[in-house]
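hi support,

uploading two proteins for the ticket. first:
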Amino acid sequence: MGGPGERLGGTVGEGGRTAPLPRSAHLTGSEGLSALGGGCRGAAPPCGTPVAITRRRAFIAAAIGVLATPAVQAAGQARWFRTSDGVRLRYLEAGSGRVVVFIPGWCMPARIFAPQIEALSRRWRVVVLDPRGQGESEVPRDGYEPTRRGQDVRDLLAQLGGGRVVLAGWSLGVLDVLSYADMAGDGRIAGLALIDNSVGEGTPPPPRPSRFFQNLRQRRDATVRGFVAGMFRTPQDPAYIEGIAREAQRMPVEASIRLLSYPRPREFWRDSLYAVRRPVFYAVTPRLRTQADAVAQSHPQPMVEIYEGAGHALFVDEAPRFNAAMEEFLSRRAAWS
């Protein structure tokens, strides 16, 4: 979904495969570390520094083992703040220590990151924003464009206090995080986690006709319900899908369309990403493999994973694996000082 062409305002499809990653990047697929597994994880910082495969396997296996165990229910404490333009936004917070901030995708509520709140708050201070018009935040008339949304992230970080944070954006949240980085620089960024959206790398796929905006205007409920159901590859409780779809329709329909039509060229997102010199974790589904290859080759401190069997909400479909990867990124990659 998104605007014309590549639709960088929402989820972005991209087909095709590329040549293997450079030798400096270790490869990992759904079945573990394999150059043929279809996945890749960039070298540890600095780019090109080798990491022992056996040590990484042991670390990931241990992390998955811990994070896959039943977790104590941890919905997060709801907190509120006002943005610099006076809009009241909500965020969920759980845990203590160094901070990781999640920004959800198009029209999605903060609670979609419940698996990450439960698992990661054991060691980290986990914060998840309800962006303006989403979740339980205020629904203003305006501000549904990248500069304001980036400023909202900046205002949230001011609310949280000083120190570096890892910013994790999913889908549209990728662009909101990169909008923040473009306006504020990387001074407060310990690392970026960018989840399943284009970052403007490579050749854009050819534009395809779409009735999505028309369908939103004419039969919004059915269109949003279909979109939400399509985010997952694993079975989800119908009540869960129903609740997410209902919450995804809080903002005016034209505002939701503006979110998918960010007025930025695709190169803006690429340049914003590479201006950040902190470590980057790029977690994507196979449609973005080409861009994952490019990030692994071009960013100085990349960690890249392909989630072969997951849907767009890969952090729900493959929560233990994603949480283990985030644990590794937070504890071993992020530049906290």
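and the second one:
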Amino acid sequence: MASVSFALDVTAVILGVVAGLCAWRSSAWLARNAAQADADASVPPGWTIAPVLAESQPADGRPLVSLLVPARDEERNVGSCLEGLLAQRGVRCEVLLLDDGSRDATATIAGRLIEAHVARGGAAAPGGDGVATAAALPVGAPEHRVEARLLGGGPLPDGWGGKCFACQQLADAARGDWLLFLDADTRLAPDAVMRALTSARAAQVGFASFLPCYVGDGWPNRLVVPWLYYFLTALVPLPEVVRVAHPRLSVANGQALLIRRDAYDRLGGHAAVRDHIVEDVSLAIAAKTAGIRIALLDGHRWLACAMYEGGRQMVAGFAKSFHSAARRYPLQWGALLTLLALIGFRPWVRLVTAPSALERTLALVAIVAVGATYAGLLGRFRQARTALVAWPLALCSLLAVALGGGVSGLLGRELAWRGRPVGGRAPS
């Protein structure tokens, strides 16, 4: 028993150090891509995309980008989100926001904002897509025209997840050469779309998602959510995600997902993952399977995200992801649980309870390895260092949510998100 315990101590140290090296390498690669994207952003408006991406490039070198936002019960976020979308410059855009059966004032707020823009400029939205249209607005010069449309979502069909169906409706209504799917809790800088395109160009990919700067006053956004940077850079070798063609080495962040239209159609769109809750990763796997290069890139300087309003919403949000992950990828879910226990919980216990100085030293080394990596990532992505103070509690909380949500999924229990079922039976 003592030998097993010692082996686990050593394993925790090794995992902490390897994760730190992976985070350093991923961060360096993200920085190089961002630097190249910055250089490309200075290219005149007639720029063209690199040859590997040229299949869908318009003749004038200026692709139309469709900014697609599914919104359900997002009255807290939809105003700020829309304002950022309508302020885009340097690229041709259309904005489509779909009200997905909201039970609050989401549609009212969105409609009022669009109508206010129309009153200032005025334009008729292109019709013929069979979806309810509110209005459209040209912003800036004609070549940088932004058209905004409010779409009414249809009833959710059997076998579909709510977000997947909303995104598929948005894609069906979109006219862009590129599709940029955004969550309603995101905020864009005025040059965000241009930088997203140049980042994808620099990485030479047809499917890109982006790491935002997590913001928000609630303690979940300040103390728990920043651990996503650790999971997505320290536990995933981001340079190899681009280079290795095997579909299982895939990662994506559905808060901001950019994909070429022809690539989206080739992988089957959201219909290919219609009943997946962790649809971003499933789309990335489908993209690689279809031979499309993918990447997770850095957008924290021009993309912000306020994920959760409070602890209850955070638990529900993470639980639904772990619920689905355990049902579809039980081995990966089990591996993540083991990792969280080994690096986030056990070293702190061993620091106090280990019988020998050597074992306590190993526990301290594991803690320092994880803490130093996390501190570096907090600085890299402009997060408050207060998150470092609370990291043992934050990781233990995530471990508990991952265990509870995953077990619910494995047992087929019902779980609801914003009034809709997530696996299992429909909520009563």
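thanks. also noticed: Residues 2-19+314-421 form one domain.
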